[in-house]
UniProtKB/TrEMBL annotation:
InterPro entries: CruF-like. It comes from Hymenobacter algoricola. Pfam families: Caroten_synth. The chain crosses the membrane at residues 50-69, 76-96, 116-137, 144-167, 179-197, 209-228. The keyword Transmembrane helix applies. Keywords: Membrane, Transmembrane, Transmembrane helix. This is Carotenoid biosynthesis protein.
C-alpha cells in the first residue's frame, strides 16, 4: 500500500551510533560554515554578488547532506521526491505566467539556469521545505491533517523570512516592489496539498539533520532580513 494516514507510531528521536553521530556533527559543521560565510558576505561585503553566485551550490549541498540522512531511500521515497520537485517547479511556472497563484513576479539570475522562466533548482527548494517541515510536524501527537496544517505553517513561516532577503538580493522581484498577501495565501494552499501528500506517502519519516537545517535556514534568512531593513 503506497498510501497511509497514521495518527500513531510517531517518530522517536534516534540514538545514533558513534560513527553516525560523528557524521552528523561533520554535516552540521559544514552547513554552519557555508551559512555563516554566506551571511557575513551578504551582510557586510561591498560585493555581495561574489557570494550570491554560490547560492545554488549551497542549496545543492544542503539537499545532498539532508537527503543522505534519510534512513531508507528506497520504495516510495524517490517517487515522493520527484513528484514534489516537479509539482513545485510547475506551480512556479504557472505562477509567473498567470500571476494568479502568488501575484505578479519574475525570477532574477541568482538561482541559476532557468527553463520556462523558472530556475530549475526551485523544484528542489520546494522538496526540501516540504520534506523538512513534514518531518518536524511528525513529532506532534495529533491527527495527520492537523500535522499537515502545522507543517504548512512552518513552510509559510519560512517564506515570510525568505521573501525580504530574496527581493533585496534579486532572487526574484515583485510588481511594484511589494510582496502581496496573495503570495502567502498561494504558498499556504500549495504547501497544504504537498503536506497531505507527504502524510499519505509511505516511507521512513525520520531524519536527524532536519531540525538543525530548518533552524539554521530560519536564522539565516531572519537575520539577513533584520540586517537589511
Amino acid at each position: 500500500m503506497p498510501f497511509s494516514e497514521p495518527t500513531q507510531h510517531l517518530p522517536v528521536p534516534p540514538v545514533l551510533p558513534a560513527s553516525q553521530l560523528r557524521r552528523l556533527r561533520a554535516a552540521q559543521g559544514l552547513l554552519l560554515l557555508f551559512h555563516v560565510t554566506g551571511f557575513l558576505g551578504l551582510a557586510f561585503s561591498r560585493e555581495p554578488t561574489f557570494y550570491l553566485q554560490f547560492v545554488p551550490l549551497n542549496l545543492l549541498l544542503t539537499a545532498f547532506l539532508l537527503l543522505s540522512f534519510q534512513p531508507d531511500r528506497r520504495g516510495m521515497f524517490p517517487i515522493f521526491c520527484v513528484v514534489v520537485a516537479v509539482v513545485g517547479f510547475f506551480v512556479e511556472v504557472a505562477g509567473i505566467r498567470t500571476g494568479l497563484l502568488f501575484g505578479v513576479y519574475e525570477y532574477g539570475k541568482v538561482l541559476g539556469t532557468k527553463w520556462l522562466g523558472v530556475p530549475l533548482i526551485i523544484g528542489l527548494n520546494w522538496l526540501l521545505l516540504t520534506y523538512m517541515t513534514g518531518i518536524l510536524a511528525r513529532y506532534l501527537p495529533v491527527p495527520a491533517f492537523v500535522r499537515a496544517l502545522a507543517a504548512t505553517l512552518l513552510m509559510v513561516g519560512m517564506d515570510l523570512c525568505i521573501e525580504p532577503v530574496a527581493m533585496h538580493y534579486g532572487f526574484w522581484s515583485w510588481q511594484y516592489d511589494r510582496i502581496p498577501l496573495q503570495n502567502f495565501k498561494g504558498w499556504f494552499a500549495v504547501a497544504l496539498i504537498l503536506q497531505v501528500y507527504f502524510n499519505r506517502t509511505e516511507f521512513v519519516k525520520r531524519n536527524a539533520l532536519v531540525p538543525f537545517v530548518y533552524l539554521l535556514q530560519l536564522l539565516f534568512f531572519f537575520g539577513l532580513g533584520w540586517f537589511i531593513r
